[in-house]
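$ run holo --ligand "uracil" --emit tokens
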Amino acid sequence: MTWEELHAEAMRCVRCPLAATRRRVVFGAGDPGARLMLVGEGPGAEEDVAGEPFVGAAGRLLTRILESVGFTRQEVYIANVVQCRPPDNRVPLPQEVDACRPFLSEKLHMVAPRILVLLGSTATRALLDPRARITEVRGQEFHRDGRLVIPTFHPSALLRDPAKKRPVWLDFQLVRRRYDELGSRATTP
Ligand code: URA
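-- output --
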């Protein structure tokens, strides 16, 4: 399957009940050849209208965090655990996460990032460990499928609790260091 075919399939997806209430499918954004990929939870109200991930308040904060360590949104790839907005911004249900998982797995396979940043508990539980607690694993480095995985707090958690800003900034400094180290090494991990 090509990237375009995957995108087209996502646009017409009705694999879970979120299809009935969404306005737009939010596939992802950025460079599909990126070495750094970030995964959030799911679209909110603004993303649902725009069809783009992380364009609301949390998204603007994410953009600023990325820029603070010298990344642009265009040079990374940004996706979510689910592609359609859960009503009232609730956490996606396990069956919605499972229904959307083939899309996320295929994006991971095709983008093949060297570093994966998991934004918040939903992404961390979906892609690292279903029992993980974000407060315990954030800022740690994990190795999965030949790539480095770093969980951190979700930007919307920072909007609610400014005390989380410093840990997230430290986590992104770690991401920056590891990313810069890739450049000086061979392509195998
Ligand atoms: N929160 C997310 O997890 N993803 C988005 O795209 C926007 C807000």
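-- notes --
The chain has a mean pLDDT of 96.
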